[in-house]
Design goal:
- The protein has nine helices and five strands.
- With 225 residues, it is mainly α.
- It folds into two domains: 102 residues, no CATH class; 94 residues, no CATH class.
- The chain has a three-stranded mixed sheet. Strands 4-5 form a two-stranded parallel sheet.
- Helix 1 crosses helix 4 and helix 4 crosses helix 5.
- Pfam families: DUF247 (PF03140).
Length: 225
Amino acid sequence: MLLDSCFIVELFLQHEEGLDSKWPFYGDLNTLVADLLKIGNQMPFSVLEDLYRWFCKHGNQVTDLKMMALNFCNHALVGPSDMSYPDRLQQQPKHLLDLFRSSLLFPSTPYKSNCKGFPSSIQRAQLLCKAGISLRRKRKAKSLLAIDFRKLRIPPFSLRIPPIPIDDLTSAILVHCVTLEQCLINTCKHFTAYILFMNCLMRQPEDVEFLRVANIITGIHPLNS
């Protein structure tokens, strides 16, 4: 654990100082980030903080460790840079995954809640469109969870969804966030609900293509390519 913790702290420090481009594995940062965020690879964040405090006593580093960790993880995560919210961070995160998950929560949503249950009757994307509900890409989204439903004049209703890249890194992060939520007690299952919601929208290949054309999901090839 001590050796792994030293590696992680040094990793964040070198990234913060701009030395990461010299790493032999620089071109494969996505794999490294996904590995750091695996729920089975988590270690107490307090251990990392203790090591970092010891380092600060023998150096000039003053950057907050939480921010360095998020800067590194967000470097590999494809998406708008304003989707991370430092003011919503856990003050005492259990581990790196817990910290990263808290940074992706919507600011107006409490970290802990008593919300229970998930919708089970949401229609898929094309059926919603036929029912008069447009699906649009939400610009300047503050979180992946910032989905809203609005009544407009033409068409009468609009479901606005923040864009999400479909790639191995994003998939891995979402899976680990959902797994973590299933292990936490008295915590609202934000990402679990998000995955269930998106799964309802994309029940057929045509629904996936519909969301791709709307630029809600990115990183996949057209259906007929």
